TrEMBL record:
<feature type="compositionally biased region" description="Basic and acidic residues">
    <location>
        <begin position="1"/>
        <end position="40"/>
    </location>
</feature>
<feature type="compositionally biased region" description="Basic and acidic residues">
    <location>
        <begin position="192"/>
        <end position="260"/>
    </location>
</feature>
<feature type="compositionally biased region" description="Basic residues">
    <location>
        <begin position="338"/>
        <end position="355"/>
    </location>
</feature>
<feature type="compositionally biased region" description="Basic and acidic residues">
    <location>
        <begin position="356"/>
        <end position="389"/>
    </location>
</feature>
<feature type="region of interest" description="Disordered">
    <location>
        <begin position="1"/>
        <end position="410"/>
    </location>
</feature>
<feature type="compositionally biased region" description="Basic and acidic residues">
    <location>
        <begin position="268"/>
        <end position="337"/>
    </location>
</feature>
<feature type="compositionally biased region" description="Basic and acidic residues">
    <location>
        <begin position="157"/>
        <end position="185"/>
    </location>
</feature>
<protein>
    <submittedName>
        <fullName>Uncharacterized protein</fullName>
    </submittedName>
</protein>
<feature type="compositionally biased region" description="Basic and acidic residues">
    <location>
        <begin position="47"/>
        <end position="149"/>
    </location>
</feature>
Length: 410
């Protein structure tokens, strides 16, 4: 609400300043028109007019500066009345910096306008004097120069107004955007904290529930037979994993050897192709030789091909023999692959539920065994025929850790 009132006040102030500037420009235009109508013709009067314009420009800038200071003073008083000085210290400093920046830019614009106007005026006056000397039409040259100067001043004033207005609007938007972003970030951080706390609480609750469930299951199913079954399954799994790793290594080695054999065969075929091309080239070169020469060449070629065929057959037979020596033919390898695939499929079907059950059973058995071991250590001094010992031992009265090896292996 206070921000809206402040904005409304600033808009009214801007409208008032625009009206004052408009009135000042109208007054200046009226005076210039009056001056032009009076038709000051000589250089001295023109110089006097320029001095008057500069003086009026300085006076206008000083008046604007005083108005700006009064406006700042009034705003500061309003903020103090509304009690915003403490809360909005940073905002006040921002506003003052923005106003100072706008004022500096305005002064810089005024100086630049003054320089441009003065330079342009001097250039135009020289040009008009030269043309007036040539044509004898000094009055028309002056009028055109005056008109250009007025247009320049109007453009400079418009640019200065637009720049100041843009600075003020940018400052307002920046202040609002920062405040909005700060509030949004704060709300987002609070929401993140609440969500993180909820997630932590749910995770703790799930862990407690899972521990309670595992403990109950272990107590319910932690008997001797289940423990034996668990150990047997663990042994079978370890054996299966070791066998699978061995088979995997063997399969990798076979694949590597097959690849080497294929590369050798490919190289042999490439060599044969090169030789055949060379022979065809030689035959073309020897085209025109006698029938006898061709017959000898044909026989030699047949002999070479026969030797190559023999070499290829020996390599293939050697490869098959090597496969048989390494543990079976390709059919057996395919059978082995099918078995492995089937086993993996079955393991996936049993899935994680079975593994979870075994893990919980193992954990429950381990806790139960530790409790029994502690109880057995307390009963170590009792008589030999005692039947109240740990139920998983044979009725010999032996307790865990006895030196004769009668206790159950842990």
């Amino acid at each position: 609400m206070r921000r809206e009132e402040r904005r409304r006040g600033e808009r009214e102030e801007q409208e008032r300043r625009r009206g004052e500037r408009r009135g000042t420009r109208e007054e200046r235009r009226r005076q210039e028109e009056e001056t032009r109508r009076r038709g000051e013709g000589d250089e001295e009067r023109g110089e006097e007019t320029r001095r008057e314009e500069r003086r009026r420009g300085e006076e206008t800038r000083r008046e604007e500066k005083r108005r700006e200071e009064r406006r700042q003073e009034r705003r500061r008083g309003e903020r103090e009345e509304r009690g915003e000085e403490m809360r909005g210290g940073e905002e006040t400093r921002r506003e003052e910096r923005r106003q100072e920046r706008g004022r500096r830019q305005g002064e810089r614009g005024d100086k630049e306008r003054g320089k441009e106007t003065g330079e342009e005026t001097r250039r135009e006056e020289k040009e008009e004097e030269r043309r007036g000397d040539k044509r004898g039409d000094e009055e028309r040259g002056k009028e055109r120069g005056e008109e250009r100067r007025r247009e320049k001043r109007r453009q400079g004033e418009r640019r200065g107004d637009e720049r100041r207005r843009g600075d003020e609007e940018r400052g307002e938007r920046r202040g609002e955007g920062k405040e909005t972003r700060r509030e949004e970030n704060k709300e987002e951080e609070e929401g993140d904290k609440e969500r993180e706390e909820t997630r932590r609480e749910e995770r703790r609750r799930g862990e407690r529930k899972e521990e309670e469930r595992g403990r109950r299951r272990g107590e319910r199913r932690g008997d001797e037979e289940r423990g034996k079954e668990t150990r047997r399954e663990g042994d079978e799994e370890r054996e299966g994993e070791e066998t699978g790793e061995r088979r995997e290594r063997e399969e990798t080695r076979r694949r590597r050897e097959r690849g080497d054999r294929r590369r050798r065969q490919k190289e042999t075929r490439r060599e044969e192709t090169r030789e055949r091309r060379q022979e065809r080239r030689q035959e073309r070169r020897r085209e025109g030789a006698g029938e006898e020469t061709r017959r000898e060449e044909t026989e030699r070629r047949k002999e070479r091909e026969r030797r190559r065929e023999e070499t290829r057959r020996r390599e293939e037979e050697g490869g098959e023999r090597g496969d048989e020596e390494r543990g079976g033919t390709r059919r057996e390898e395919n059978e082995e692959k099918k078995k492995k695939k089937k086993k993996r499929k079955g393991e996936r079907r049993r899935g994680r539920k079975e593994r979870t059950r075994r893990e919980e059973t193992r954990r429950g058995d381990e806790e139960r065994r530790q409790g029994e071991r502690r109880r057995g250590e307390r009963r170590q001094g009792e008589r030999k025929g005692d039947r109240t010992g740990p139920k998983r031992h044979r009725p010999t009265g032996k307790t865990p850790g006895s030196p004769d090896g009668q206790s159950s292996p842990d």
